[in-house]
Design goal:
single chain, alpha/beta, Rossmann fold, six-stranded mixed beta sheet, globular
Length: 234
């Protein structure tokens, strides 16, 4: 295979959102929009694509509002008018009912699925397991790769979903590398060939507004845990 036959997947995480209010009360994740920082991140990503002359053949989102808004802002910067494709199997790993998680298990429920190589039985916030996440993400990515009618595609998805895709690309196996950081609004770049194992990971977790990411050494789930614990007065 010549290098030119590989196709390019740009994989983004949606921009920043506010999942908990100042008192730690959760906002419905299915409806939460981008916050001010998230809008800035999405626009900055769009400018990067525009400045590099990147043109997308397809744009795929999960359908949740935060992916719709991020993709729309990216396309506004590139000047492209492309119909967004909603792949509902690409929604974020689904959490359970927060109030049902005992105080002693709360931190593990937030962060456990994103530490090291997460076992398939590990559940996110008492909800969907890592194995169940991979059961829907891997076939979707295989289906995308089998479709030859694109050269460059933009996927605007979620932190957990992106980890499943990147882990698949890096290992070629059914593994979930939970400690792959995915900053809000980040860009990843992956090249794919015809052979199943032909993945080339070009770029991971590039954040245009904060290229060296010096402002934080914590993870998204650690930050969310500390926000929610206010509601429990822990």
């Amino acid at each position: 295979m010549s290098f030119s036959q590989r196709r390019r997947i740009f994989l983004m995480r949606h921009g920043s959102v506010t999942y908990f209010d100042s008192a730690g009360k959760p906002v419905l994740p299915e409806t939460v929009p981008l916050n001010e920082a998230g809008r800035t991140q999405a626009t900055a990503a769009g400018r990067v694509f525009a400045e590099s002359g990147i043109r997308f053949d397809r744009v795929i989102i999960s359908g949740l509002p935060r992916t719709v808004e991020t993709a729309t802002r990216v396309l506004a910067e590139t000047g492209q008018q492309i119909e967004l494709e909603r792949w509902e199997e690409m929604v974020e790993i689904r959490g359970g009912k927060l109030s049902a998680i005992p105080d002693a298990d709360l931190k593990e429920a937030f962060t456990g699925a994103f530490e090291g190589v997460a076992p398939e039985h590990k559940r996110f916030l008492g909800g969907e397991s890592i194995g169940e996440l991979m059961d829907r993400i891997h076939p979707a990515i295989d289906r995308l790769r089998q479709d030859s009618n694109w050269d460059t595609v933009l996927l605007v998805l979620h932190g957990g979903v992106n980890r499943a895709i990147l882990s698949y690309a890096l290992t070629g196996q059914r593994l979930f590398l939970g400690n792959l950081a995915q900053t809000a609004g980040c860009i990843n770049a992956l090249d794919v060939g015809e052979a199943e194992a032909d993945w080339v990971v070009r770029l991971i977790n590039y954040s245009p507004p904060s290229q060296l990411q010096a402002e934080s050494r914590g993870t998204t789930m650690e930050a969310l845990f500390h926000q929610y614990r206010k509601a429990r007065e822990l």
